[in-house]
Specification:
Number of helices: 11
Distance between the termini: 43 Å
Number of strands: 14
Strand order of the largest sheet: 6-7-8-3-9-10
Strand content: 25-35%
Largest sheet: 6 strands, mixed
Oligomer: single chain
Order of helices and strands: EEEHEEHEHHHEHEHEEHEHEEHEH
Helix content: 25-40%
CATH class of the largest domain: Alpha Beta
Structural class: alpha/beta
CATH architecture of the largest domain: 3-Layer(aba) Sandwich
Number of domains: 2
Amino acid sequence: MSALIEVEHLSRYFGKICAVNDISFKLSKGEVLGFLGVNGAGKTTTMQMLSGCLAPSQGIIKINDYNILKDPLLAKQSLGYLPDTPPLYKDLTVKEYLHYCAQIHAIPKQRINAALDTVFSRCGLTSVTNRLISHLSKGFQQRIGIAQAIVHNPDLIILDEPTIGLDPIQIIEIRALIKELGKNHGVILSTHILNEVQETCTHVQIIHQGKLIVKESIDTINKSINESSVIFKTTRPIDKQILLTIPGVQNLEVLSNNEFKINFNHSHDLTQQIAEIIIKQDWGLIEISPVKKNLETLFIASTEEPA
């Protein structure tokens, strides 16, 4: 499957400050990429470069094989972009605004009404088409922002914090829309909300201090999450082989002279069984504690600063 977007060694400097540092990745049709990072990590700067709103200091961005710097018009024909603040003209009605957006995207005049009907339906805007944007809720305004990004049916959709400031019901509705868009497009989703990534994305990237430090499929992430661990300390040496023969145990790590970590399948909590074996073998159990994994623990472990 050919990539909708290819990013190679992308960097961006603001004076001497490196906001984005040598990142590379690809995205194909049917994939939804969750782009995570703490405030100031470089997410929005990256989104602005991917959308052609900000020139990179170094690197290459190709959308459908068109270089966004050398062939910007051709590259952007395949691109829809929702910045963190939706670019709305609030003194227009929903229909007037999206008609204007359709014209900007050079949709032929005879096809504009059909394109609008499609985007009204997809974004849940049919009931508000003739209302002023300024009179609508934040949730509807976010929907309109997404609608302007997809009115021309682009192959690649970039959404920067699409659910920020929404109530729980609105968040659920926008997530459902993003999942639907991911079936026939490539979607890049920047967010702070970790469970949003797990529920809507096929791939995850974590950026920290401008660098990509995690780049995995959600299946790989979930497989890692489905593994649990136990950390224990003893007063005497242990026989590793006895513990490794327990069904479900995957590996044993030596953390220090008398501190160990056992990883096992999450579907079987082996904490009690491990404790019983240590006591039976008289290895002098001092303490034992389970360690559960989720996307939050992965994110914190990846981005926390060393003490």
